[in-house]
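User: Predict the structure for this protein chain, please.
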Amino acid sequence: MPGTHTWRSDLPAVEVGGTTVPAFALERAAELGEKPALVDGATGRTLGYRQLAAGVERVAAGLAARGFGKGEVLALASPNLPEYALAAYGAMAAGGVVTGANPLLTTGELADQLADAGARLLITVPPFAERAIAAAGKAGVEEVLVFGEADGATPFRELVAHEHPSVNVAVDPARDLAALPYSSGTTGLPKGVELTHASLVTSARQSQAAMGVREDDVVLAVLPFFHVMGLNLILPCGLRAGASVVTLARFDLEGFLETIQERRVTFTIVVPPIVLALANHPLVDRYDLSSLRLVGCGGAPLGADVERRCAERLGCDVVQGFGMSEASATITISPLEAPRPGSVGRLLPNTEARIVDPATGGDLGAGRAGELWVRGPQTMRGYRDRPEATARTLDAEGWLRSGDLCHFDEDGYLYVVDRLKELIKYKGHQVAPAELEHLLLAHPAVADAAVVPRPDPEAGEIPVAHVVLGGEATADELLSWVAERVAPHKRVRAVQLTDQIPRAPSGKLLRRVLVEAERARRGREG
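Assistant: Here is the predicted structure, written as structure tokens:
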């Protein structure tokens, strides 16, 4: 590596931008014709490529007829459905910006995002229509549409079944926004991440260079489209390759496995809790998963032991990647021909990185952990209406501070240690919760685990494990399991057995929920 300790991808550079997201994803639609582009996993309802492309044009025209124009924001609070792509790409084709929202947000949470994004229209599904209408009213959203029918909402089909002429909106891929996902960034409350067409298209090209989605693939979209991995990775890469994308509206293990078996799924991207289930859960043995050729994992670090167990059980490649909303989706992906379990892979094309010492600001070499900084054409323009937060995350030279503690090995493989802000300070030592979580998840009786700090008058903080059991084990056995494998200062000091670990739909651990519970416990005991 260069003496400056800047790591650069050794993959050939990809073209940067040059087109819009819908044009990129659907470039081959006419050629592919009636081949299934999107399939509803539950019902089998199918949109062919030609039908999808025509539908996107009609949605764009339907929106334009409503006065929805360039730069305006359409919000989607919906689970994964084939129509999600129609709505999102139709809005982008009309010159608009798409912000995805978790349909399980409370009325207040959804209203906050709608107001912050400046959303003009909101699309949802019937079960969430009442909440969506209430949130839209609070946020000043002009109209609520619904996939299907619901009182007080306009049927989405009105955007498709109409006589309005087609529109041709001039979009500058390098300047105009396509998506506005919401991210907490390195710290703090959710912020709108401004992503241009060029950054998203480039990101898809970068990811495809590493993943190699094929025309004969059946891609299972279980990660939500309101998350960057769903909308910015699975959907454009799958459609651009000419694959068939199967949507799942919600995850439950049995339905997930049944869909893989029935639809002969070849490729999917999931989050660590799903990989853990695939590695350990007895249900897996009841299904024929032999069609799978590749399972990708992202959203949070995954321990090497679980990665290996899953690959051996499924008999297919299991590889990790790493990314952020602020980088469109992905920064690194493990090379399929040479993965290293426990690593999140190597830098994607056109991407460079540094490992920066948080204390001194100096660059660190191979094997030394510091904050990962990245630079490439896939990074965000900034946070919406938050110049100070943007300046803290993105410097004048284009370096994006990830907030993650990482290190590269000598061969340029990246390893994520933990979030910088989540390190536990035990008697002056820094303890990475993720390291202890990986050890706990390697125990055959552990189904899920999270490690958080508990305030302690003597040590400052002590590591406490919250554990979901999938087999027989005691708290003392788990304490010993970890103690035998780590230095004394890293030992877990207490184990709390629980029924569920709080996680976001992306699979990311909601550590703050457990941290707040520990602080409340300390307050009661104090």
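The radius of gyration is 23 Å.
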